[in-house]
Amino acid sequence: MNKDWMPVAAGVMEIVAGVCAGLGAAAVAFSGAVLHHIPDVQHEEDVPLELITGLLGSLTVILALFGAAALIGGIFAIRRRGWGWALAGSIAALFVVPPLGVLSLILVLLGESEFSGHEPLPAGSSDPED
C-alpha cells in the first residue's frame, strides 16, 4: 500500500484545531470566573449575571467537547486507523476552526483508502452484497 501524506496532514490540522478549541474553552471559562469579580457587573440590575454565566459555561463545555473530538480524530488520522473517528474529528474541527476543518475534511475523504481496516465501496455499487 502506498502511504500518502493526506491523512497525516489532516491529523495535524485536526490536532491544531483541537488545541485551539481547548485554549478557547479555557479563555471562556476564565472570563466567566472573572465576570463575578467585577464590582459594577455584580450590582447591575439590567445584566442577568446568572444567565451570562450559564451561557459561558455552556460554551465552555461545547468547545471542550469539539476540541476533544478533534484531538481524538487527529490521532486516529495520523495513525491511519479508524476512518470514522478521523472523519468525526475533521467535522468537529470544522465547527472550531473552519478553514482547518474544511481542509482536514477534504484530506480525510481523499485519503479514505489509506486507513487500515477500511475498504471503500466501488464507485458503481451502492450495495456491498452485489
Summarize this, please?
By secondary structure, the chain is an all-alpha fold. It has 5 helices and no strands.
Topology of this structure?
Blueprint: H1 6-35, H2 39-42, H3 49-79, H4 83-96, H5 98-110
Helix pairs in contact: 1-3, 1-4, 1-5, 3-4, 4-5
Question: What do these coordinates show?
Answer:
This protein is mainly α. The chain has one domain. The chain has five helices and no strands. The chain has helices at residues 6-35, 39-42, 49-79, 83-96, 98-110.
For the record, give the distance between the C-alpha atoms at the N and C termini, rounded to a whole number: 25 Å
User: What structural class do the secondary elements suggest?
Assistant: mainly alpha
Helical residue percent band: over 70%
Number of strands: 0
How many structural domains in the coordinates?
1
Question: What is the overall silhouette?
Answer: rod-shaped
Low-confidence stretches: none
| Topology as a string of helices (H) and strands (E) | HHHHH
Mean pLDDT: 85
Give descriptors for this structure.
130 residues; 5 helices; single chain; 71% helix; mainly alpha
